[in-house]
Design brief:
2 copies of one chain form a homodimer. By secondary structure, chain A is an alpha+beta fold. In chain A, about 55% of the residues lie in helices and about 10% in strands. In chain A, strands 2-1-3-4 form a 4-stranded mixed sheet, with helices on one face. At the A-B interface, strand 4, helix 3 and helix 4 of A face strand 4, helix 3 and helix 4 of B.
């Protein structure tokens, strides 16, 4: 009998990626809710290198890092493929998923926490990243074509999570005038199963990010004083 | 007729990864040597997002990012698989390759450029990263088992390149006493085909890194003055 457990926290988007993927595949799993302020020994044993959620436990074997977990899920449960089948399209999907994690998320986070004269420059960098993704989604319903795929799952942070960061950072990034295709994708994405059945409340994400933003801003303020 | 071209520079280890992979697969390719001080329009068109080498051109279709290219090569030319066949082992190989790029390389680079009171802490962080990889290679000839695989290729920077950074950073990291298994792996790796036939000269790598190190140190010095 197969056993699938997910160590995760509801407000984190890397964790949401794994939940969406498991649900697309129709894999049943047990959700082990992690308290990040008091990490469990199971998490520390399962991901001793990064000590971070999400961790997927498949028959007690741990897999960490959300994009690595997505590939594992796609290779283990073949139904409803997440990645395209063509090697070149697979490479493009992986390229953009890395871009989202390594550039886009950092740029939007940087714009959120930036204050004073750094704000305009940081917002500009975030807009530059998003403009590249706007070009990628133009003319398509989903990054994966007619269905949600690997890159939609990876890009899921651009829906609710970026919207919360815009609110907390008092800035407008992903509006319909500036990025019509990304904006429409984001609306579609949030209304598609299984995403719509498996998304944290806006209030809980606001609370989740607020702590980190205040912490970073207080560090920046104390280093200047 | 298939056409494979590689836009690259000999001293860069992400570029070396792609060359090793193509040679393991027995794929013939044309090497397009890039001058990073005066980037070609072909590079800028092929990788407009990052404007970086390596880029693989397969029948004129560009693929960028060395780890993405390795997966593409493995999926396109099936002979001599680079990744393990088992999904769990594949996930582990991908996890550690990301660790090398996102933690280990940055830690060793940080230790190289650090000066003054920051040096000891930075060297400590680099040693912590390497200690995790020492545990991974213990008892094995290669990360891939009896043959060089995806993770050996990803880890290839720990051979010649890290050794040059140790010299330029005036520090000892990967010696035989501290990390006997990694040290032995590194020696084996450099003597294995196709690596041994396709490695830049030490002098050229010293020159390649020296420029960057001096630049970073001069920035750090000017921000303190």
């Amino acid at each position: 009998m197969e056993e699938v457990k997910l160590i995760a926290t509801h407000q984190s988007f890397p964790c949401a990626r794994v939940e969406w993927a498991l649900r697309i595949k129709g894999v049943e799993y047990e959700y082990l809710k992690e308290d990040l302020a008091n990490k469990s020994s199971l998490l520390l044993q399962s991901n001793p290198v990064h000590k971070k959620v999400p961790v997927l436990l498949h028959n007690n074997k741990p897999i960490a890092e959300s994009l690595v977990i997505l590939e594992y899920i796609d290779e283990t449960w073949k139904k409803n493929p997440l990645l395209p089948l063509d090697p070149y399209e697979r490479a493009q999907a992986r390229f953009w998923a890395r871009f989202i994690d390594e550039k886009c998320v950092l740029a939007v986070w940087g714009a959120t926490v930036a204050q004073g004269e750094e704000k305009e420059k940081a917002v500009g960098a975030a807009l530059e990243s998003l403009a590249l993704l706007e070009k990628e989604i133009q003319g398509k319903k989903y990054f994966g074509g007619e269905k949600i795929g690997y890159l939609d799952i990876a890009a899921g942070c651009m829906s609710l999570w970026f919207s919360v960061l815009e609110e907390l950072g008092e800035m407008e990034l992903l509006n319909a005038e500036r990025f019509p295709s990304l904006h429409e994708w984001s609306q579609n994405f949030l209304q598609t199963s299984p995403v719509k059945d498996c998304i944290p409340s806006r209030e809980s994400v606001v609370e989740y990010f607020s702590f980190g933003i205040n912490y970073v801003r207080s560090l920046a303020a104390s280093s200047k004083s």
